[in-house]
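[PROTEIN RECORD]
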Amino acid sequence: MNRAWMLIVAVTAFLSISGCEREKDRLDAEVRRLCAYDGGIKVYEQVALPADKFDRYGSISFYRRMSKEPLGSEYRFESKTDYYQKGNPEMWRNYYGVIRRSDGKILGEAISYGRRGGDLPGPWHESSFRCPEHAGDASLLKQIFVKAK
């Protein structure tokens, strides 16, 4: 009876692990496919700003992520997350855009895809995968807003 019980536990564990890995692999492949299709940063127009608009790290000093108007009154910042699959695992698409308010022109956009979870339960952190690696709001803003020469 003891050997039969061990065999049942081993087979159940193997099936659980292989099922989790297949779902993670499937979602990671889909993230890669979508990322190749439209992921990344696209800058349509750069804006040259005086040096006093930047902090010591080269980031714009007037960006307030949690504010109602994150880029002040001159530029509109858009952020949207669309979930393709919720739960465990989950998969999503992030979109960031910067629009000049005076003429409505889109200055740049950043699109990334991600997957989180799909692991066996335990005391460890969930695994995750994101593509492309540097397509967030900070990277987009650094490519749009440059120091005037």
Observations:
- The two ends are 80 Å apart (CA to CA).
- Residues 94 and 147 are 27 Å apart (CA to CA).
- The chain is about 30% helix and 30% strand.
